[in-house]
């Protein structure tokens, strides 16, 4: 009897696997991997000790959130309805300057709690004090792609310290938490990082053989400033600095020309599309259908809870499926299955983790279960449509990462939910001086 093997019987599985998109049947997990998924009973059924009744659940791959700043959950609702630069300079950065290790710990814990409970199993995080973030990931059972984001608007000596910190973090934590943590190198953005600073991150990424991530072309003002300062738009500027010579992905990419889209495709640069944040900060709407048509890997990010204002990736899926229809006037540009792909297979492609994003034998057992009895999942016309247009993170009941259950019946098993809420509230009160 193999005790690490267990079996979900009689479930409905939305797999994201083109060979069998919806399976009404069974899935076997062995250790951290999916061992079998199919309509027939598993061949070794009699050897599997643990069985779960899946008949009242809809199973799907865990969602992958490819851009965010988890600790900023502490600033949810602190400043709304501002444009990006005012929001950053007048509200976020002054508050973040007061953040301590404890603020990052509890802000990140709050975010991880929210993400896990709403079905996200992997998240990308760019922030400061990243050891705190990594420890929360380690404890929570979640998967994290982590990087020390660096703003270079500071003296060269401080820039060198930030680079050294980013390198140390990347070395210390890559592959940690049984392989659930992956690290990258991340200069914040072309408008906050002088060219030589970006080049030093590119060099470090080469030396460490790590991918890179940055914000890019989020607003029209950013593009214009880049042209004024460097004579180039952000895409050509980052390309010249060598950033795209690394495996890389950019957040936002809202303001792109046809030529820039072609260059991103040629260089294999992926894009994290953050529709809610881009709408809320009035940055615009990224040209996602054109990016996809050009062959660019596109995924979804929430950005932080301070510009979203939640971390429910189902909201981003729905938004992505809706806004591109509205902007283009063409209801066929983003069909439901493609919107769902952005948050699953697209996320896996963006972070270059081909073992994630689908329910398929041999892949990692990162998956979620939604309550199939909810009225908005009836009638049973088209489950993919229901997941995109009708579902929300509140439907998620159970979550597994690496084959380990981390949410059961809507409750996080490895985190103290009550304590996190209380500590996060106390952190905010202290930061706000209330
Ligand atoms: C250096 S740590 C990350 C840094 O990013 C800031 N940030 C949050 N949201 C955005 C956004 O939409 N565009 C650019 N920068 C953003 C955050 O305040 C942190 O300082
Ligand atoms: Zn961001």
How do the strands and helices of this protein lay out in sequence?
Elements: E1 5-14, E2 22-30, E3 33-38, E4 50-53, E5 57-61, E6 63-65, H1 84-96, H2 101-117, E7 120-127, H3 130-140, E8 143-150, H4 156-173, E9 181-183, E10 186-187, H5 195-208, E11 212-216, H6 220-230, H7 234-240, E12 248-252, H8 258-267, E13 270-273, H9 275-280, H10 288-294, E14 298-300, H11 313-328, H12 336-342, H13 345-350, E15 367-371, H14 383-389, E16 396-401, E17 404-408, E18 411-412, H15 417-432
Parallel strand pairs: 1-4, 1-5, 6-7, 7-8, 8-9, 8-10, 11-12, 12-13, 13-14
Antiparallel strand pairs: 1-2, 2-3, 5-15, 15-16, 16-17, 17-18
Helix pairs in contact: 2-3, 2-15, 4-5, 11-12, 12-14
This protein binds the ligand CSC[C@H]1O[C@@H](n2cnc3c(O)ncnc32)[C@H](O)[C@@H]1O and zinc ion.
- Indicate the mean pLDDT: 98
Radius of gyration: 21 Å
> If you consult CATH, what is the topology of the largest domain?
TIM Barrel
- Tally of individual helices: 15
Strand content: 15-25%
Low-confidence runs of at least 5 consecutive residues = none
CATH top level label of the largest domain: Alpha Beta
* Count of beta strands: 18
Q: Tell me, what's the shape?
A: globular
What is the CATH superfamily label of the largest domain?
Answer: Metal-dependent hydrolases
* Distance between the amino and carboxyl termini: 58 Å
Listed once per kind, the bound small molecules are:
ligand LTUXU72L, zinc ion
Helix/strand/pairing class, anyone? alpha/beta
Most strands sheet: 9 strands, mixed
The CATH architecture term of the largest domain is: Alpha-Beta Barrel
InterPro entries: Amidohydro-rel, Deaminase_MtaD/DadD, Metal-dep_hydrolase_composite, Metal_Hydrolase, MTA/SAH_deaminase
Family: Belongs to the metallo-dependent hydrolases superfamily. MTA/SAH deaminase family.
Function: Catalyzes the deamination of 5-methylthioadenosine and S-adenosyl-L-homocysteine into 5-methylthioinosine and S-inosyl-L-homocysteine, respectively. Is also able to deaminate adenosine.
Enzyme class: hydrolase
């Amino acid at each position: 009897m193999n005790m690490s093997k267990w079996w979900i019987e009689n479930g409905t599985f939305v797999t994201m696997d083109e060979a069998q998109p919806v399976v009404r049947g069974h899935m076997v997990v062995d250790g951290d991997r999916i061992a079998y998924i199919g309509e027939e009973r598993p061949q070794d059924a009699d050897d599997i000790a643990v069985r779960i009744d899946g008949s009242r659940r809809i199973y799907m791959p865990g969602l992958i959130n490819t851009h965010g700043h988890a600790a900023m959950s502490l600033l949810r609702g602190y400043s709304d309805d501002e444009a990006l630069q005012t929001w950053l300079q007048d509200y976020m950065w002054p508050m973040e300057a007061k953040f301590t290790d404890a603020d990052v710990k509890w802000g990140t814990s709050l975010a991880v709690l929210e993400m896990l409970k709403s079905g996200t199993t992997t998240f990308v995080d760019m922030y400061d004090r990243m050891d705190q973030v990594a420890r929360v990931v380690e404890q929570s059972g979640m998967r994290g792609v982590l990087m020390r984001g660096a703003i270079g608007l500071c003296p060269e000596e401080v820039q060198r310290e930030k680079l050294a910190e980013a390198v140390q973090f990347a070395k210390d934590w890559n592959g940690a938490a049984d392989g659930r943590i992956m690290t990258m190198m991340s200069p914040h953005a072309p408008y906050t990082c002088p060219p030589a600073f970006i080049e030093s991150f590119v060099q470090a990424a080469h030396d460490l053989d790590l991918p890179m991530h940055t914000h890019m072309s989020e607003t029209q003002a950013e593009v214009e400033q880049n042209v004024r300062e460097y004579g180039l738009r952000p895409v050509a500027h980052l390309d010249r600095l060598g950033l795209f010579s690394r495996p890389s992905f950019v957040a936002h990419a809202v303001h792109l020309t046809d030529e820039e889209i072609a260059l991103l495709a040629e260089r294999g640069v992926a894009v994290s599309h953050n529709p809610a944040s881009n709408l809320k900060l009035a940055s615009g709407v990224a040209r996602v259908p054109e990016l996809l048509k050009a062959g660019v890997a596109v995924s979804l990010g929430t950005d932080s809870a301070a510009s979203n204002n939640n971390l429910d990736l189902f909201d981003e899926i729905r938004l992505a499926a809706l806004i591109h229809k509205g902007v283009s006037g063409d209801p066929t540009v983003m069909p439901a299955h493609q919107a769902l792909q952005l948050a699953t297979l697209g996320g896996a492609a963006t972070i270059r983790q081909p073992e994630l994003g689908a329910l398929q034998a041999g892949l990692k057992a990162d998956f979620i279960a939604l309550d199939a009895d909810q009225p908005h999942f009836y009638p049973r016309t088209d489950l993919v449509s229901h997941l995109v247009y009708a579902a929300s993170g509140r439907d998620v009941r159970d979550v597994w990462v690496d084959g380990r259950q981390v949410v059961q019946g809507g409750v996080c098993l490895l985190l103290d939910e009550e304590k996190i809420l209380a500590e996060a509230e106390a952190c905010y009160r202290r930061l706000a001086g209330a």
